[in-house]
Design a protein that fits this description.
With about 220 residues, the protein is α/β, with parallel strands linked by helices. It has seven helices and twelve strands. The protein starts with a strand and ends with a helix. The structure holds cytidine-5'-triphosphate (CTP) and magnesium ion. The site of cytidine-5'-triphosphate has 22 residues, from helix 3.
């Protein structure tokens, strides 16, 4: 069984508002990207890594992986206009023989090794994909303009994170449908795939705004 990681790092980081793409914003002494690359490279579960870099930043991304000595990184491609497109482009670099693809957001730098194990285990029990999720603490409402349309029942809601693990051929087929979604699991669900939820981890907090950089630093 070979497990390939796809690291989605190609976003521009509009909401962070740095003078460079989010993956190269500073987290401590290093670019944000360094943390997830280091952790994936050190993972006992991961055999190889493909990075989707911000267009024009492939070279700095490669230099960074060399500096880090991240030998599992086999290639670094320019990402696309959307997250799904970036994953699609990176997955094209994953060999046909790969058994499993683990998709992770570079915007979630703190990746605990045990979560990688948790998302991989159910793939041998007939699941197409596995995602980490956390119970939702707040009440979630659907809103149109500023008017509440619906209050969702909190019971049964989970906030989903990455890493998300998939049988590689299933993910490939789902991405070929050229749909768009904020996570890969939704594309697999859309074609009837079975996705399991396992326990997520608070430390997998996604860096979206400036405040999140400080919050994530506390978990380093
Ligand atoms: N991503 C990507 N390619 C894109 C858009 C997003 O690889 N075209 C990646 C980001 O690099 C990030 C993850 O998907 O690791 C989650 O996206 P998000 O947090 O929205 O990051 P950005 O799109 O960069 O931020 P923003 O939406 O604020 O511009
Ligand atoms: Mg985005």
């Amino acid at each position: 069984m070979s497990v390939w990681a796809v690291l989605a790092a190609a976003g521009s980081g509009e909401r962070l508002g740095a003078d460079r793409p989010k993956a190269f914003a500073r987290l401590g002494d290093a670019p944000l990207l360094a943390e997830s690359v280091t952790r994936l490279d050190a993972s006992d579960w991961i055999d190889a890594i493909v990075i989707a870099a911000p267009p024009g930043w492939e070279e700095p991304a490669i230099l960074l992986t060399e500096e880090l000595g991240a030998g599992k990184v086999t290639s670094c491609v320019a990402g696309g206009a959307t997250r799904a497109e970036s994953v699609r482009l990176a997955l094209a670099e994953v060999p046909e023989e790969a058994t499993v693809a683990v998709v992770h957001d570079a915007a979630r730098p703190v990746l605990p090794e045990e979560v990688v194990g948790r998302v991989l285990a159910p793939l041998s029990e007939g699941w197409d994909g596995v995602v980490p999720g956390l119970p939702v603490a707040d009440t979630v409402k659907r809103v149109r303009r500023d008017q509440v349309v619906e209050t969702l029942e909190r019971e049964g809601l989970v906030a989903v994170q990455t890493p998300q693990a998939f049988l590689a051929p299933v993910l490939r087929a789902a991405l070929a449908d050229s749909g768009e979604a904020s996570d890969c699991a939704a594309l697999v669900e859309a074609r009837g795939g079975r996705i399991k939820v396992v326990a997520g981890d608070r430390r997998l907090l996604k860096v979206t705004t400036r405040d999140d950089l400080a919050a994530v630093s506390a978990y380093l």
